[in-house]
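[job 4471] stage=fold_predict status=RUNNING
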Amino acid sequence: MARFEQIALEKGMYHVPGKTFTQVLEELDSSENYRGTPLEGLDAFQRQLKRFDIKVSGPGSDPVEQFFATSGGAALFPEYVARAVRQGMERASKVTDLVATVTTIDGLDYRTLDPDGGTWGPTVVAEGGVLPTATLRTSSGLVTLQKRGQLLSTSYEALRLQKLDLFTVILGQIGASIANAQMNDAVDALINGDDSKDGIVFDTTTSLAYADFLKLWAGLAPFQLNVIAAGTDAIQKLLQISEFKDAQAGLNFQGTGKLCTPLGATLVHVPDMEEGKIIALDKNCALEMIQAGGVCVDSGKLVDHQLDEIAISCTAGFARIFADAAKGVSYTTTASST
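[job 4471] inference complete, writing structure tokens
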């Protein structure tokens, strides 16, 4: 009998400090042991799905009740829910277009590093001269973490015969909603500041034109302008500027749905962003994302078949890194050219 078929699954595996359910499984049944076998490519959780003959996707996906045919299968259900939500987050999330790094913590209190002190950037130093000092210290305030989630009201009777493929789609949309909320939190940290840094400074213009973007590009130096974040109204106005009507850019948008700009920056659509504002940033230096764990579900209730309410949440916050790595422009009207 294979090792993965001998593991006793129980809900306490979801409560090991600092470890996910899959990480606990991997310690008991390492994927390294399956190289060169038909099970290569599956992680420890996926091998457990195979063990209990649970198909979560495709035309032949099982009904939800397949998880609860055995006590071992029931113990897998919370991880399935968490994974489906994460898939939805990854599909919809644009946060990765804004953040330089993601830090995962076990608690709720976190102080980031503040590099905005002294002189950052090498200079010519004469023989015997003193090198410029770059100051790095702990930030003055704790990073505010926001809990974003959804309470899904349902019942085992309503779900038991539904296909897992469909349920995965529904859970994925919950994940997409959480990702969109986190995107708004990231933009809010840039516009209004975090607990230790003020928000970015917006230049004001009455006529949004290509020259405004050239000014942003120059103002960010020595940082690079590689991301522009804007709301729906701003995106529509940007695409009316003549320099944004480049034929190749149009073909790229029509063929892939991916927006681009003449300055080579990625254009990120943030539907709920405040109208009249556009943010330009260097995504490699501007923002840090802090996560308190991953996707959280009420594992105890789910294992015990108590599906009347499924609580799904994710706790995260954002901190500015280099203050000068993001700038903005606010506008009142638009122009079609420079």
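[job 4471] summary: Residues 164-192 form the longest helix (29 residues).
[job 4471] exit 0
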